[in-house]
Amino acid sequence: MISYKELGLVNSKELFAKAVKGGYAIPAFNFNNLEQLQAIIQACVETKSPVILQVSSGARKYANQTLLRYMAQGAVEYAKELGAAIPIVLHLDHGDSFELCKSCIEYGFSSVMIDGSHLPYEKNVELTRKVVEYAHKYDVTVEGELGVLAGIEDEVSSEVTHYTKPEEVEDFVKKTGVDSLAISIGTSHGANKFKPEQCTRTADGILVPPPLRFDILEECEKRIPGFPIVLHGASSVPVELVRQINQYGGKLKDAVGIPEEQLRRAAASAVCKINIDSDGRLAVTAAIRKVFAESPAEFDPRKYLGPAREQLKELYKHKIINVLGSAGKA
Description:
The protein is 46% helix and 16% strand. By secondary structure, it is α/β, with parallel strands linked by helices. Helix 2 runs parallel beside helix 4 (65-82) and helix 9 runs parallel beside helix 11.
């Protein structure tokens, strides 16, 4: 058993309380390799933002649980080396079983998500409460979920969106004891979050998705006032990154995300954690494709992963400053 406190990490409780009160959201950036982690820490140190390092079940398998523990510890020391001891959370994204959450807690995670949203309501409550009871013994925070997001990302997939029912949130929070709650208000996993027929198209061919259901968010806020709310599937799928990928040989068709102005509005509410994964993947892919197209003889990974890391860092800084509002909150 390794305590996250030994690694220099923090849980999300105090960060969320400050975010709800301050009207901003903590960035939750997914990572599974060195360059992604470097970009996250550099961006957050340069903007003085707290951060949640997210690891999905698939990323944990890919990177190795032991290496991840030391990468997180290294991130804490790296931030200090760069000049700012920012608060860093290591969080399991979309944990699907008690056993996985327990294992992550034992390997030094400071926060876990148990996603029972695909289960019948009472089964979701039962599973979530079991994880909470175990996690709280070790001062680890727990995120639950009500409602289902459509789309595909890593090992998470659903064909249909099921909006969160506001009438369930108060009962769920009370019965489970969760520290934060992910809700479904129209965000979606992956780069192709919506089908073209769900969107309107501008004169220059850009797809505009349907607006988020702020009425559901507002009703949830009324029922659990001041309680930390989380948005998953909140990448914006920047048009310029999609164009760069396609310009250099990619085939991303009709990729569309959540408009940043809607995420800014959400971040000013009780939404205190916004997950961003696909945008990071797009930034990395766009930069690497550009290097390969312009320098086809290049074979040194540093020569294409370096530019990818830089483009990723700039994307994250933009999100922190202009979307989430967490700059200067460390």
